[in-house]
Amino acid sequence: MSQQGDWQSEFNHRWASSADHKEPSARARMLAARWKENPPEPVPFRADPQPVAARRSSWISTAVVLGSVAAVILLLGYVQTRAFY
Predict the structure, then answer these.
(1) Among the listed residues 51, 47, 67, the one whose alpha carbon sits nearest the alpha carbon of residue 59
(2) 61 vs 57, 58, 67, CA distance in Å?
(3) DSSP assignment of 5-52, as one string?
(4) How far apart are CA 71 and CA 77, in angstroms?
(5) Chain mean position to CA 32
(6) What span, in angstroms and rounded, lies between the C-alpha atoms of 33 and 3?
(7) What is the largest CA-CA distance in the chain?
(8) Which residue in 20, 24, 27, 60 has the fewest CB atoms around it within 10 Å?
């Protein structure tokens, strides 16, 4: 038999996936045995340890960004007009 034929017969994934009984992984077996004696404590999905501080107004951030953009535009315009003289 060719090597590819051996490989296909050895690693037939469709046959393995269609198995009626699938053995759990070693980690799943280990956790099941550990949790049988000591079940884990419930943990919230996204627990925040401390409340979040209030943010500053978004208008301040908007004004800073728009002011910076205006300053860059004015600076580029000034540099461009000085380059022609």
Answers:
(1) 67
(2) 7, 5, 10
(3) HHHHHHT-HHHHHT-S--PPPHHHHHHHHHHHHSPPPP--TT--SSPP
(4) 10
(5) 27
(6) 41
(7) 85
(8) 20
Q: Which residue is it, tokens 């209030």? A: 54
Of 56-60, 67-71, 72-76, which range is least confident?
A: 56-60
* Percent of the chain residues past pLDDT 90, beyond the cut: 32
- Burial (CB < 10 A; 0-12, 13-18, 19+), residue 15, is exposed
Question: What is the model's pTM?
Answer: 0.35
| CA 79 from centre of chain | 43
Size of the chain in residues: 85
Give me the residue label for tokens 């049988």.
Answer: 36
